[in-house]
Amino acid sequence: MEQNYQILVVDDDISIVNIIETSLKQAGYQVLTAHDGEAACHMVSINRPDLIIMDVMMPQCNGIMATMRIRQNNNVPILILSAKAEGSDRVIGLEAGADDYLIKPFYQQELLARVKALLRRYDDLGSIRETKSDDEIRVGAIVLNIATKQLIVRGESVRLTATEFKILQVLMSNPNRVYSAEEIYERVWRSDAYAVENTVMVHISRIREKLELNPKKPEYLKVVWGIGYVFETP
Q: What mean pLDDT comes out for the span 24-44?
């Protein structure tokens, strides 16, 4: 139920915070607010929200810096908001650890749809609150534990975001099968794919950093140029 979810809204523009807060509350969510990245990091450590809506341009500690700090020890879904529509800004946000990106101005219905999708993905695949099975996917020295939502790389536990977990689950469930960026996006984001290559590429790059001994010469997660991505059996 929506009312069980607590969402942190972070923006230095109080009017925008109020609009988003009202929309979320009308949809049944609990809402926390902060007006800079420093306050957001503090609130995350105390309140453990289920999702963060984070503006980029803020004083003291901007949204990119705050996202990077939060990602050091928390896999909470993060939706980045920005008035900049350039692809490079979108990539920077994703590289910092954000799960999704929304350009201002936006329709409230689109914001709520993104929130719902991120929360569903987190509950289904990125949270460790439920452990109902012992299923796991093993490819070489890489183990994806479906029960605990953990990645085990050469015997060591590695932290994943919900989005990263789902991407790996898609690829590792069918090793040696090539998936296009559009296929991956539609399966993970559960939305129609349009100009999604950069978004998927950034997430793949982050996953490689976590599981490959040499990300520039991957052993498992490889690119098939002009086609897509594949998780290969070594």
A: 93
